[in-house]
UniProtKB/TrEMBL annotation:
The lineage of its organism: Bacteria, Bacillati, Actinomycetota, Actinomycetes, Micromonosporales. Coiled coil: none annotated. Residues 16-180 form the FAD-binding PCMH-type domain. The keyword Oxidoreductase applies. InterPro entries: ALO_C, FAD-bd_PCMH, FAD-bd_PCMH-like_sf, FAD-bd_PCMH_sub1, FAD-bd_PCMH_sub2, FAD_lactone_oxidase-like, Oxid_FAD_bind_N, Vanillyl_alc_oxidase_C-sub2. This is Putative xylitol oxidase. One of its GO terms (molecular function) is L-gulono-1,4-lactone dehydrogenase activity. PROSITE patterns: FAD_PCMH. Keywords: Oxidoreductase. One of its GO terms (cellular component) is membrane.
Amino acid sequence: MTAPSNDAGRNWAGNITFRAARRHRPSTVDELRTVMADAEHIRAIGTAHSFNRIADSTGDLVSVAGLRPSIAIDAKAATVTVGGAVRYGDLASHLYAAGYALHNLGSLPHISIAGAVATGTHGSGDRNGNLATAVRALRMVTADGDLVTLRRGEAGFDGAVVALGLLGVVVDVTLAIEPAFEVRQFVFERLPWSRLVESFDEILRDAYSTSLFTSWSGPVVDQVWRKKRTDEPAPPGGDWFGAVPATGPLHPIRSMPADNCTAQLGAPGPWHERLPHFRLEFTPSAGDELQSEFLVPREHAVAALTAVDGIRDRIAPVLQISELRSVAADELWLSPSYRRETIGIHFTWIPDTAAVLPVVAAVEEVLAPFAPRPHWGKIFTTPLDAVAARYERWDDFQRLAATYDPGGKLRSQYDAWQSG
């Protein structure tokens, strides 16, 4: 099992150089408690798979990757308690060997559990909540060095799960599990844009998890990845809403080799080897991309996509690929899907911050009527007060954060998040 960390002083994409004067990697919880109590300003860092300064600090950075990466299954409670630094791919392999599954996985199995949960990172599926909705308890070290456990149903729990690292450093997380299942992945090409607009809901709800990839360069969606459980009906052969079945494995970016992608062509396999887009044994390319994502209410999906399509001439020159996916509503205060069925509009940009930022601003402008919530760990330019206004429980969260960190030791420099 791998407990990852980032010791290079930069984030995964290389567009952020961390400013912390000191970096800590404690090997025990007691050491972590001492580090927290002694610091004046401190932030937690995981796999550094973020594209803004959400994890940055001008004082100290701390990683829990040095703690023992434990995994403990409680079959009676149908939960697993896992170290915060453990990657989803490592946890998934362990669970599958024991006959269990998580309800959802992100595109990359390489990200740490605590970091993904804290930022509301998600997989895909009309009936699937984001990764944080599986949390049943979490244990964290607060700013003063106290060790605190919060459980689902307790006061403040719904504000403490997607907490952006502002309440404490998460040591371990308890997640809901279910019996293992198998999935078939079917990829279709060249879905006509007109058919997507006409049948959007039907297309998205067709499978357990559906992702649409577009380069915003023409009247078609380049690829549709349909991930269907084997206990769901297999799709009929032939065209599907005007899209045609792929004849071989594909990468979402057509010029890239498909070797590092999960198995396609309808071959059945374990849930954790189909729900992600990429295989755990392949290291994602670092420094070759920037990312943004905007999550809009499901009822505005077609209008929002049409608005983005209206500026595709600006988007396409700085884009590698864009992914569209759905996420179920939840009750987590700072989750981008809080109390609204959601469509994620994700952008993988070229690694050129100066060229990308004006286009991100243009995307935000056309999406503004739909109250988009930007992914907390990715590039956006909207001021924090405008983002906060899109979260009904923002003030409640601020009060919760002040309870656990009254001195602001964990406070992030919000105004520096966006540009890097």
